[in-house]
Structures are given as C-alpha cells and as structure tokens.
Amino acid sequence: MISKSFFESLEMLANERGLAIESILEKVEMAMGVACRDTEYVGDIKIDVDSEKKKIRFYEYRYVVSELTEGNKGEILVEDAQLLKPRTKMKPGMEIKTEVDFTKFGRKSVSKFKNTLNNELKNLEREEAYLFFSEKVGEIITASVIDSNARFVTFAIGKGTFASMPVSETIPGEVFAPGEQKKVYINKVEKTTKGPKVYICRNNREIVKRLFELSIPEISDGSIEIMGIAREAGNRTKIGVLATKPNLDPKGACVGQGGLRIKAINDALNNEKIDIFTWKSNPVDLIAEALLPARSLSVIINDEKAKQALVIVRDDQYSLAIGKSGQNVRLAAYAIDWKIDIKSFSKALEEGISFTYNVIQK
Questions:
Q1: What is each CA distance from 71 to 37, 61, 74, 92, 303, in whole angstroms?
Q2: What is the C-alpha separation between 146 and 154, in angstroms, rounded?
Q3: What average pLDDT does this structure show over 148-175?
Q4: How confident is the model at residue 2 (pLDDT cuts 50, 70, 90)?
Q5: Checking DSSP bridges between strand 161-166 and strand 181-192, what pairing results, if any?
Q6: What is the DSSP letter of 2?
Q7: Residue 236 to residues 84, 98, 206, 330, 341: CA-CA distances in angstroms?
Q8: Burial class (CB in 10 A: 0-12, 13-18, 19+), 94
Q9: Residue from 100, 83, 82 nearest 91 by CA
Q10: What are the C-alpha distances in Å from 37 to residues 25, 40, 45?
C-alpha cells in the first residue's frame, strides 16, 4: 500500500493544476503498469483507491484461459495458473488477484514510474487545456501580458498556456506593459503536441459585441438585441441596439447611469470611441439614427431593394455626417448594411434635388 501522503500530494497537484483527481489517478495507474514490466508482475495492473481513508493499493490481475489470445494483457493458461495457486482448482474465466509489493521494485522500475507519470501528467494538462480553450472559442478571456516586440505580444492566458498575438491583431496605438491585464477574443484553437495553440485578437468587431453582452445585463438576458455593428479598431465603433421589451431605452441602458457601463467597455478597448444608436424598422429613421451624432434633414430612399439612400444635411452638419476621412458615414453604412450618399442642403438645392423634411429632429 502507498502512503497516505502520496494521495494527499496528488490532491494538491489536482488543485494547483486544475485537474480532476480521477484523471490523475488514471495516469498513476498507467505509470504503475509501465513500472511493473521490469518486475515479476506481468499481468494487468489496476489501482484500488479508498478516497475517504486516502489509501491507494495496486493489484496485478491474471485472467485464466484455456488458450492465449493476442493482445489481451494478463492472460494465463490454466496449467500455469495451477502452478501459482496449487490449492485451488483453476478453471478458465477465473481471476488471480495479487497485491503489488513495492519492495520488489528496483531503481529502473521506480525511475520508469516517475518518468511515465510526469509525461502523462503533462499530456493530461495539454488535453485539459485544449478542451478548456476549445469551449472558449468566440469568447473573451482576461490575459496577462508577458512580453512584446515589433511583431508579437505574448500573453499568459491560463491553464499553463501562452498565446502570441500578432501586432496586426492588436488595437492600433495601444502599448503593452508586462503584467498588464487585457481582454482578448479567442478566434480559434488548434491541438499540437506541445499543447493547444490559441489564436487571440483585440481588433475585430466580435470583441466589442461580446463586451456589450458581458457588461450590459439587458443584452445578456435578451431585453436588448445588438442588430448591427461596424468597427475601425482603435478609433471608432458604431453599434445599433433594439429593445425587445416595451418602455426600455436601449441606448440609455447601454450607456448606463453616468456613462459607467459604456466607460467600462471603452476602458477595455483602449479608450476607443463607441457610438450607440437605436435600431429602427423604418429605413428612413434607421439611416438617420446610424448617422448620429450628425443630424439629418431628409433621407431619400433611392432603391429600397438595393438598399441605396441619399441623405440631406444642413451645411454645418455636412463634415460631421461624413466624418474624418469619411469614417462616420462609412461605419453607419456598414452597421446597417445600406449604401449612403451625403449631400449638404446648399448642394442639394444647387443640383435641384427635390426632398421633404422627413426626419424627426431630436
């Protein structure tokens, strides 16, 4: 019998590495089977665990047969079994159970046990880590910066696993300091012989969506839905939200009292600007909302099927509607999946464009 302290050390190992004690005991059984190959025990080695008393025993099992079959470990012919148990009438189907005596183990067997167990525990950790991160694909985790250079940022992401994020997948302009905590989005996970290879990023629009889902209770419980989102990482995001319950202001809920909710998301994204607009079923209202903070005068639907529209704005709103380098109108168009052209009031008059003031001013 192995000492109680050995079982306790396995329990401590399970807690430290986040592994199930049952899985570790399976590896211990496997390692003992390998160690026994250089001893008199040539049968099937099985572990017997008393969890309450924290006791572990190992037994060799020999299975009595009339004819040996290839690949079935532990088989022993009737006549050979009879020599082992002369006082018992041995018959096919019987078992011979013998407790393993560790005093018969030499240095080679002990070394094999230790090496095999260490290798199997490493494999177990890798498998557990792969399964853990496979279930996290499409999710956000908190990672700790280990190092960074001109090409990659290396993170510790838990489960003894490290992931290298290409600089091209970071938010432009952000700086990474060792030990700093960052929210990262898991794109995919691959199994390798050295453990899981986890692909992470911070510059896609999905990380914004998941942050809203995690930070806004009304989104997580379905009271508010995210209908559209467009992002230029490090600069600006537009996100359209729709309330599924009456008397609920979706934009206000996302911003939060005193802007606390949206600020938490801003902070996680390196202070990236986020425009939240209310989703509308009417295309005129939807386009006007998406272009906020610029205020529209008129939305002309040129082709509803092709989703093409012309928007007229006051002259002093034209630059705001277009945005720096066309960003505001571009993000609005991507978020709602419409093609939007902007014209100033004076330009529309000059070109003789007929329009009605169909946007409710707020």
A1: 15, 15, 9, 18, 73
A2: 5
A3: 96
A4: confident
A5: unpaired
A6: B
A7: 80, 71, 14, 11, 20
A8: middle
A9: 82
A10: 19, 8, 10
Residue 63: per-residue pLDDT? 95
Label residue 38 by pLDDT band (50, 70, 90).
Answer: confident
pLDDT at 187: 97
Which residue is associated with the tokens 């399964």? Answer: 131
The pLDDT of residue 281 is above 90: yes
CA distances, 212 to each of 265, 283, 288 (Å): 7, 24, 23
Query: Concatenated DSSP letters for 219-237?
Result: HHTTSEEEEEEEEETTTEE
Rounded to the nearest integer, the mean pLDDT of the chain is 94
**Share of residues in the chain with pLDDT > 90 (%):** 88
Q: Please calculate the CA angle 240-241-246 and round it to the nearest 5 degrees.
A: 150
Q: Pick the closest to residue 46 from 9, 95, 105, 4 (CA basis).
A: 95
Residue 361's identity, in one-letter code, is Q
Tokens read off for 66:
């009339």
Over residues 311-315, mean pLDDT: 97
Q: What does pTM read for this prediction?
A: 0.84
- In sequence order, what are the beta bridge partners of 308? 303, 339
Are the beta carbons of 238 and 332 closer than 8 angstroms?
yes
The confidence score (pLDDT) of residue 72 equals 77
Kindly calculate the radius of gyration of the chain based on its CA atoms and give it in whole angstroms.
Answer: 33
DSSP string, 183-209: EEEEEEEEEETTEEEEEEESSSHHHHH
Q: Percentages helix, strand, coil for the chain, rounded to the nearest 5?
A: 40, 30, 30
Measured CA to CA, the distance from residue 318 to residue 295 in angstroms comes to 9
